Amino acid sequence: MFYRKVHSLGMQTKQIYTFGKYLQDKFGTKVHKTAVSISGFTCPNIDGTVAKGGCTFCENDSFSPSLDAVKPLKGFHLNLASNENPFLEKQLLQLEIQFNALSTRQRKSYDTQKFLVYFQSFTNTYAPFETLKALYDKALSFDNVVGLSIGTRSDSITQETLDYLVELAKTKEIWIEFGIQSVYDETLERINRGHNSANVKEWILKAKEAGLNVCGHLIFGLPGEDRAMMLETAKQAYEWGIDSVKYHPLYVVKKTALANEFARGEFTPIDEEEYLEVLNQALLMKPYHVSVQRITAGMDDDSLLAPLWCRDKNKQVRNINASLKKIGLKY
Question: Given a cut of 50, is residue 98 above it in pLDDT?
């Protein structure tokens, strides 16, 4: 059985297993992810190591933190071959400032008791090991932090870093998040991803064999993909053994290569009806134990070009739940 049964308004529905539920069950209290962005981190698809310009949908400036503690680091970028990091102390300070600010808001707004520090922006294993170790250890030293969630790419992590995360996982809740996006190499090439699907599979399997928790990111509506291809990506991701999943539609923002394709009529964004149909099927296919961390995404400012239905997140969730209700599910 894939879903926990609940009763709502006299009708039997099946509650989708969420990441929040997973954390609540494990720690017995509210646990939130606290997202941080560390200046100096970048991506091999941006710095020219595997490609230039980033993925076609990526607006690089949107990842730049704006805190005063970060401003001196502009123009400084790390990679796996960096021999030194003269700004490590500034990065550690930035980490502390961000965590303290956001965790305080989470406590006040949601009565959050414990936290996962979420290294979110850019590629958070794409730096020398000593830098990563210092940042991860610092994050785990904060009060009421029970673990880490680290967003990265499969071509940007070393065995040394993976082994260290395994060591941390002996006493802490450690997650690694890989951008899968698609299992089709022609799609990955078209979006300028910089690696193939085999590379993602390899590192997900390595992480799982080592005992780490893995979250996979999936994008529906990528250029050239039909419904069957989107669902095949979800199917294979489940088969690789991911423990959690994030789904979202591909949307177009200004200052991206995808925006240029959209302007030339070379890309048509996924419409809401199709997204809902694909999402429903992906959720029906999903093994129950794979928790769901996100079911949609969008932006509510003028940087969003299309599709416009991605502008209002609350409306998206309402429409998703209305659609799920028809198939006996609830988010």
Answer: yes
